[in-house]
Amino acid sequence: MSTPVDLTPAAESTVDTPSRRGRIADVAGLGVGRAVAFVLPALALIALFLVFPALWTLYIGITDYQLTGPAAANPQVIGIGNFLTALGDTLFRNSLWLTVLFVLGSAVIGQNLLGFGLAWLLRGARPWLRRLTESLVLLAWILPSTVVAFLWFAVLDRDGGTLNLLLGTEGTAWLVRYPLISIILFNIWRGTAFSMLLYSSALAAVPPSQLETAKLVGASGWQTVRDVVFPHIRGHVLTNTLLISLWTANDFTPFLLTAGGPNHASETLPVFIYRQALEGGQLGYASAISLLLLVANLVVAGLYLRLLRRRS
Amino acid sequence: MRKLATPLVVVASLGLLAGCLGSPQQTDTARNADAKELTLTITGNSVVGGKNAARAAWVTDWVIPKFVEAQKAKGVTATVKFEGSGAGDEDYKTKVALDLKTGGGADVLTIDGIWVGEFAEAGQLKPLDELLGKSQVDAWEGWAQIPKSVQGLGSFGDRRYGIPDGTDGRVLFFNKKLFAQAGLPSDWQPKSWTDILDAAAGLKKLPGVTPLQVNAGTAMGEATTMQGVLPMLASAGKPLYRDGKWQAGPALGEVLEFYAKVYREGLGDPLTQQEAKGRDKSFAQFAEGRLGIMIESDYLWRGVVEPTRGVAKMADRDQVVGWAKIPARQPGVGGRDFVSMSGGAVNVVNPATKYPRQAWELLQFMNSAESIKARMGGGAQVTARADVNDQVLAGDPMLSYVAREVLPVTQYRPPVAGYPRVSAALQQATADVIAGRSVPEALSNYRAALSKIVGESNVDAG
């Protein structure tokens, strides 16, 4: 939709450079009708799969729509009722807080630091070692989430779980005792590969001469990263943090490991929405919460983009 | 371009919205009644080689070929398909609800009886009379064989929505081997909560054994309510729902105290209750002889530890597994010495079916005495039909015990639409207790949640 070409005749008459006039003539030569005919399929798809679901969610979100029961037969529009309910819902606030911790712990801190650390360490490694490590880490990223969840289940399980065997802590139910930490570690393990690859390519862009200078003046590793490397890769850091934060905030995989439990201790927002909608049948309420999640995503994205723009 | 885009999108969206909000079609009881060629689909939460496999096998290997054959004799070419599902109960319910909501789904569905009220209130199920005509429905011979109380399972507001598929009862199952090791009798029958706790305390001395399991918490879902809170509440002398009021008083407090005792004094394992796969684990523990006593439906006997087809087979089930009735808190509390809870599945006709008359024929066929006997095969289940029960249960001591001793004292869940959310609140109350909250706090949280669901005036806190 962001075509820079304006098809109105008025716009055409104001164009003065010959080359631009030629381009517009080409496009305009199709005639408005045919141009629309070309765009229509794309428009229809966007309407069908993007605009319509969003509008539909917005509509459901202001009703008391349910999966079964009286409100399923005859949903009433209740305006901002669902949003007010969310404000007073301790389970929703719990989910919101857990989501923030989950994103901060696993994406912003965990994947970012570990991904950068691995990329930094592998920078000078022999090519074969570098490729092997990258492939192994990447494996975690490309495995289907159900498979990964199953693997971690086998690691963290109380009966015969690998972690218990390694630590000699027989019978510890990690997923029950440390549910949030479990899903954070799980997500770090799964998502680090992306950050590592991104930082690997970012580091390649840091001028070697500057790194050498840093070495010559006796800068420590930390000083080198802070004063030489970081200014070069600041954009990458922001972009990466934005992407992995949004992915993590919307990630449903924790459900496969803990089902949000025990007692809501790992119920991040996507899990909360799922349970409200499909287990509790509260479609209206769940839609309202999804809208809140969408708005939160947009706000976060907006903040990052502002930071990026300020830099450039 | 932008000038065009906005109206286009709006028009497209409104068109779609209008399509989705289409009004439900009128029912025509004789729709396609004379069709010579037809296709019907059956669905249930059972799948060949998986969940409730015996049932899936019966539908595909017996019901479908026999029904097709019978139709052929009448000159009708029928194609019948079975769409099995092996999902969790909650997921299966969601699927059925979405199917019915969108006018899709199978023609004949097997659903949990407790969902009938919800689906009926949503207009997603129709009373059989309305769907097929009263004379058609009343003409079925089977009604005479199904006790009134069991018919209630498929009814809502005194109208029949389906044919009950069977029922069950809840008892205390125990492991006789472990009982012998702990010096407890093999013909154990507790008379009070104290008796249960004493036996559990005796089992606690055995190494590696969890003495008692009473389902608790939110991870167990409806199992917590049905195998935990509701039988215990009945045992404490109060039903969950009576005359429009929902129980939130001292009787529930006593039940939560019982939970606190079990899970804080090491009589039960609080971790299993909170694991995502806790229920399956507890079944495995029982089958392996690592769990002493559990409150369960007779499903445990016929579907879990069953030696050949169960999900956690127990080769020596008949020698090792004992059972006893769930006692009242004290003999005579609430006017009873023993209690139980029952549920069961119901077969219903999808109101959106193209062939209501033939779907109803299929439903009758599935629930005929001959068909149900075929379904039992070697095993047995408490069926809805008295004539079949008389024959098939004779060979199974556990199930005839349920039919004879348990069903007379059993109760059913409130068949009203608010129940599932109340049930979820009860699960939360037990989860709070396991997590270490005090009983008064868990109870007051539950009262607050309950008032929100059913309205403060319908809460019985006395």
Describe the structure.
The complex is a heterodimer of chains A (312) and B (462). Chain A has two domains: 18-73, no CATH class; 89-311, MetI-like (MetI-like fold). Helix content of chain A is 77%, strand content 0%. Chain A has helices at 9-14, 18-28, 32-61, 70-73, 81-88, 90-122, 127-142, 145-156, 162-167, 174-177, 179-204, 208-216, 221-249, 254-258, 269-279, 283-311. In chain A, helix 3 (32-61) crosses helix 16, helix 6 runs parallel beside helix 11 and helix 13 (221-249) packs antiparallel against helix 16 (283-311). In chain A, 31% of the residues are buried. Chain B is α/β, with parallel strands linked by helices and 462 residues long. Chain B has two domains: 8-168 and 343-412, D-Maltodextrin-Binding Protein, domain 2 (3-Layer(aba) Sandwich); 170-341 and 418-460, Periplasmic binding protein-like II (D-Maltodextrin-Binding Protein, domain 2), CATH 3.40.190.10. Chain B has helices at 2-20, 53-73, 89-101, 115-121, 128-132, 134-138, 148-151, 176-181, 193-203, 222-235, 250-264, 270-274, 278-287, 299-304, 317-320, 356-366, 369-376, 386-392, 397-406, 419-434, 439-454, and strands spanning 37-44, 77-84, 108-112, 155-156, 159-160, 162-164, 170-175, 210-213, 241-242, 245-247, 291-297, 321-324, 326-327, 338-342, 345-349, 410-412, 459-460. In chain B, helix 10 (222-235) packs across helix 20, helix 11 (250-264) crosses helix 20 and helix 20 (419-434) runs antiparallel to helix 21. The radius of gyration of chain B is 24 Å and the shape is globular. Residues 1-25 of chain B have low confidence and may be disordered. Chain A binds chain B through residues 1, 3, 5-7, 36, 39-40, 43-44, 46-48, 51-52, 55-56, 59, 66-70, 72-73, 158-159, 173, 175-176, 257-259, 261-264, 278-281, and chain B through 1-2, 4-5, 8-9, 12-13, 16-17, 20, 90-91, 94, 97-98, 101, 115, 118-119, 121-124, 217-219, 221, 271, 274-276, 281, 417-418, 420-421, 424, 431-432, 434-435. Chain A: This is Multiple sugar transport system permease protein. Chain A: The chain crosses the membrane at residues 38-62, 96-123, 135-155, 175-199, 283-305.
